[in-house]
Design a protein that fits this description.
162 residues, alpha+beta, 3 helices
Length: 162
């Protein structure tokens, strides 16, 4: 269980009450959660999945266990980080000075695919000052106008937020 908040006394009372009702152990500050490393600093929180990367040098592996570990780590990363197929980005800094406001921006390049006349949608979503999601993809339909292409881009962005 992860307990978060800015009321230290309230958190202590909650822990005491939970300990009375349930057998539990206080593990102190959060360090790992679901394979994500959490590091604290005065600048904010750093979320990272660096432990799933290996210093693999590209040579054939004689150890099948190591091969399975590397493949398993890559599969885990692609499940938890769908963007890993396009970008190697495994750390996220959530600054302590940043707000928790969600901002989304979308754009479209209307009819930029000269072969099929499809538009390309792009969006990025920020939590405060931190980029948390982004995408660039060819639209599945041919838009008759730039307004229609923009509508599809905003729809894709909204789906990502929800």
């Amino acid at each position: 269980m992860i307990i978060i908040g800015d009321d230290i006394d309230g958190i202590s009372v909650l822990k005491t009450e939970l300990t009375r009702q349930f057998e539990m152990k206080d593990l102190s500050s959060l360090r790992y959660f679901l394979g994500i490393e959490v590091a604290y600093s005065s600048r904010g929180y750093l979320l990272s999945q660096l432990k799933y990367y290996s210093s693999y040098d590209g040579l054939p592996l004689s150890n099948l266990t190591l091969y399975r570990t590397i493949v398993g780590s890559l599969v885990y990363l692609t499940i938890t980080r769908p963007d890993i197929a396009y970008t190697i980005h495994v750390s996220l800094l959530l600054p302590s000075t940043s707000s928790l406001e969600l901002h989304a921006y979308s754009n479209v390049d209307h009819g930029s695919d000269f072969t099929y006349r499809k538009s390309i949608t792009g969006f990025c979503i920020f939590l405060g000052d931190s980029l948390i999601s982004w995408k660039s993809k060819k639209q599945s339909i041919v838009s008759q106008s730039s307004i229609e292409a923009e509508y599809h881009a905003m729809t894709s962005t909204t789906k990502e937020i929800v």
